[in-house]
Specification:
The complex is a heterodimer of chains A (356) and B (273).
Chain A: H1 8-27, H2 35-45, H3 49-54, H4 64-90, H5 94-123, E1 125-132, E2 136-138, E3 144-149, E4 160-173, E5 176-187, E6 193-197, E7 203-205, E8 208-226, E9 231-236, E10 240-244, E11 248-257, E12 262-269, E13 280-286, E14 289-296, E15 301-304, E16 307-310, E17 314-324, H6 328-350
Antiparallel strand pairs in A: 1-3, 1-17, 2-4, 4-5, 5-6, 7-8, 8-9, 8-16, 8-17, 10-11, 11-12, 12-13, 13-14, 15-16
Chain B: H1 3-29, H2 32-60, H3 68-89, H4 97-112, H5 128-156, H6 158-168, H7 177-207, H8 215-237, H9 241-260, H10 262-265
The chains are: A alpha+beta (356), B mainly alpha (273).
Chain lengths: 356, 273
Amino acid sequence: MRINFASTRLAFVLISTLLALIIVSALIPQQEIAVGQIADLRQALGSGYAIIEWLRLDDIYTAPYFFVLLGLLGLNLTMANIKRFRIIFRSGQTLLRLRHLGSIIFHFSLLLIIAAVIANYLLKYRGEVALTEGQTVEDSSGIYAEEFKGALYKGSYNRFTMTLDSIYESEVIPGTIGTAVDITVDPAGKRERKATIMINRPHEIADLTYHYALTKGYSPEIKLTDSAGRSLYSAFMRLAVTQDDELGQVHHDFYELEPFDLRITVQVLADSISIGDTLYWVALEQGDSSLYEGELRPGDAVKINQYQFSIPRLREWCYITIVNSPFLGLIFLGFWLALAGMSISLISRVLPKERK
Amino acid sequence: MSAWESVFFWSSALILASVFFLSLMSVMLTKAAAFKLSRILSWLALATLTIFGALRWINSGHPPFVTLFESMVISVWFMLLFYQILTLVHRRMLVLLIPVSAISFLMLGWASSRSMTADPLSLALENTWLFIHASFATAGAAVFLIAASLGGIYLSGEEKLARMEKVAVRVPQYDALPKSIYNLLLFGLVLWGVMIVSGSIWAQIAWGRYWAWDPIELWSLISWLLYGLVAHSRMAFKISQRTFSWLTIVAVFVVIFTLWGVNYLYETIHTYG
């Protein structure tokens, strides 16, 4: 059976298959996108989830059959365009030529988008780092809360050193207050740059784009001193997020201070994480004994045996996303070409026909 | 919503209801004068809705595309606007008045069940691309709704269309309707495409990723591909005009779900305002 790769019927079948897969991905949670929902679905379906896993319906966009489908679509688009080129050259009618030209530009742009999206996916980098005011980090794997590296991404770490100078509220536009983040970035081999980033206002420094990632909160400084007032330990705690059945979303963290056999746990509820003057729940344990459990406000201190524990101040922290998308420009060029092609086709259809 | 906004919103809804019933009655009772009156009222509906939109813009400080309520109302405005432009260019399209007024009236009713408050815009939404994105989404939906209306007229049959000629003076050629539907689909695809592209650009600026697999993003893509399929089905399988018209009507429900139904079922970053 001979397959006509330029055929519109084949295009219909391929687009239908693509559409069906996208609909399935809208109904079944996908890996790396909705991990929490996958766990719920797995629990609900039990052993029945094995079929979904075997068919990779929970990971459609990285499944081999998806790339095969994109490859066939690409081939169909290419062959269809070649066929249209021949029609243009043979046709004497300007409007017909214009219509097919619009169609060629549109279908070529789809090829460009597919190729650029795949290339960008393979070569892009995205990392999310949480920083407290005044904190400096050096680019390394340990600083990122979340990271994505394309399979062919060649970059390594030590690309920059970054300091979060301050987080504050700024009236960007009259009447609209937003969070502004001042950062100092020292890219490797280039001069140091200062930048202010906000939502909708990222900043590019040496091939990396820095975005304010919308999430911020308060870090309590915890301070442990001895009975003579000498500082034994001091740090800003950035509280991790967990879900508690009774309390809902809770932000908490703990430090183990081995020299003193102490464990310090600090916790605050999610609805007060962005409020400066809030109550922190604090627990101090030494070995198996609980030394203290209670609430403290910033500025408060409590004496516990030979120690004094306090939360002297707060600093704000936020997430910053660092992105490198090398083929982004090509993807957007493809988008605009697609619109141009469709518009040319549409105009050629609505213009009055040429008189013979 | 301010008192004057309320006045103009409910006036528009009332006028559109009148337009629908008047135009329907004019066809059933063959009263050309009634149809002419309903056309005049449709211009009045467009005017009152325009004033509502302007008042909303002034009172909220931003273009009225942000909340679910605003999105629905502006879609109705675009539908009325495109209808008027279409009928100025092609007088034969006057017959669209019946389905367009019915859909507009129903949508305003649906919109009134949503929260009508206009909150100040958060900084996350202060971006020119957002307004391009939201306006083309509503405009695209309006065009798809008009295309579906034309599909409905085709499905009602040649006899009914001929009957409308007695009141509307001119009607489109029955056999030419599918071509008009196709051209409208293509126009809608361009508008919807601009919506997807501008949304991607805005997402890249705001969040550092042009595609976040958000449910509304996915369903927008599904809608766009579906209309692409409908357009290809004519060429690929030489389907009947009736089937093509039915497909146009079925596809518009996917658009309605994408813009105004997804939030009922999914958690999404498109939380409208």
